Amino acid sequence: MHAHVILAAGQGTRMKSRLPKVLHPLLGKPMLAYAVETALALEPQRLVVVVGHGAEQVMEVLKAYPVEVAVQEEQLGTAHALLQAEALLKDFPGPTLVTQGDTPLLHPETLRDLLERVEEGAGMALLTVELEDPTGYGRILRQGEEVLGSVEEKDASPEVKAIREVNAGAYAFDGFLFQALKEVRNENAAREYYLPDLIAIYRAKGRKVVAVKGVVEEALGVNTREELARVEGVLLSALRREWMRKGVRMILPESIYLEASVELAPDVTLWPGVVLKGKTRIGEGAEVGPYAVLEDTLLEPGARVLAHTVAQGAVIGRGADAGPFARLRPGAVLREGAHVGNFVEVKNSLLHPGVKAGHLAYLGDAEVGEGTNIGAGVITANYDGKRKHRTFIGKGAFIGSNSVLVAPVRVGDGAMVGAGSVITHDVPEDALAIARERQRNLEGYARRKREGD
């Protein structure tokens, strides 16, 4: 039984952004969500997030999680931020885990190690890592597992500067925590209250402080855009490896972007530059071509998306294909064996099995029957300036090139529409509709025009 406090109040000025630092996205999810989900994996009795900069925006994101929120009105340092949780946890006996909202790579197992050390009798346990270049970090002084102190870079002697073990910013504390926080002073250049000062306070009270050494990669924090990209790279590499182990073929995997919410089946093939976002699901044997972007899209087994296609909120059925250079907007549904070719846009439309729209068409708010052929340049004119209307095209119909179907309109089964027609009335089954001016040839007109008529 433990409490967990996540410190997420910082402004993150080095991000050079109006967005609060902890809300910057990593693989489509706010950075803070990783810290919250890691905390929840340990099933704390109480989970408190301390917010400050951009509090309203941060609290909006936190509504999705079972957390309590404390507000740090002024950002006066990490110890001051933690003290803001006292009102919510004053009757909680401990132990209490404390992590940062900007360290999204921490694993639950690592935090469990910190908890166990406090449960075994330590007053305070802190996570440390060993850096190749520890410049700028406070150095950890220790004797065996026991921590003697933390020395800031500016106060360190050459011998201390040679130490490479640094504080990673994750802690576990016993029930003395909030009493100890009130003894932290702000006698430093920034006039802020810092958590590492608790090391000396705990030791002065005869309470043991121990270090748990972690993996450098796991403790990476985010303070700059470069660090954000580095952390995202770590998450992305792990995600790619996981899917390849499950049978996904990735050609040039380092070029493929996908989010944790995406689901892939065995024998899926992803070509270079593919982007998979949101709740995209790709079925067995489906293929996604180079530089295609899929968001919240379902590919059923055996479906194919060709190069440079963009699909959002679409469904592509078994054996159906789209692209290259197709655009499928929300509500586009391609049933089994349907084909949508280059520069075809489909929006909120159902294409039944075997429909073919090979090139240069717009199908919006339409239903197209099985086996129908849509010629080049066909448009369903679905918007009258105020409202959207639907177009219904039956089975086995043939819509000639460069035709406009002005909705609301129906084209019956087996009907044909002559090329270049503007259809404003329903077309019966098996009829031919031609809606264009009859061609006239004016003999000699062109010659007379050239000769100065």
Automatic annotation (TrEMBL):
InterPro entries noted in UniProt:
Bifunctional_GlmU, GlmU-like, GlmU_C_LbH, Hexapep, Hexapep_transf_CS, MobA-like_NTP_Trfase, Nucleotide-diphossugar_trans, Trimer_LpxA-like_sf
- Cofactor(s) needed: Mg(2+)
Q: Which UniProt keywords apply?
A: Acyltransferase, Cell shape, Cell wall biogenesis/degradation, Cytoplasm, Magnesium, Metal-binding, Multifunctional enzyme, Nucleotidyltransferase, Peptidoglycan synthesis, Repeat, Transferase
**Linker, as annotated region:** 226-246
Family annotation (CDD domains): GT2_GlmU_N_bac (cd02540), LbH_GlmU_C (cd03353)
Give the UniProt subcellular location, in the record's own words.
Answer: Cytoplasm
Q: In which pathway does it act?
A: Nucleotide-sugar biosynthesis; UDP-N-acetyl-alpha-D-glucosamine biosynthesis; N-acetyl-alpha-D-glucosamine 1-phosphate from alpha-D-glucosamine 6-phosphate (route II): step 2/2; Nucleotide-sugar biosynthesis; UDP-N-acetyl-alpha-D-glucosamine biosynthesis; UDP-N-acetyl-alpha-D-glucosamine from N-acetyl-alpha-D-glucosamine 1-phosphate: step 1/1; Bacterial outer membrane biogenesis; LPS lipid A biosynthesis
Task: Indicate the segments forming the MobA-like NTP transferase domain, all copies.
Answer: 5-128
The principal location of this protein is cytoplasm
Enzyme Commission designation: 2.7.7.23, 2.3.1.157
Q: Active site annotated at which positions?
A: 359 (proton acceptor)
NCBIfam families per UniProt: glmU
Q: Which family does it belong to?
A: In the N-terminal section; belongs to the N-acetylglucosamine-1-phosphate uridyltransferase family.
Q: What is this protein called?
A: Bifunctional protein GlmU
Originating species: Thermus brevis
Gene this chain is encoded by = glmU
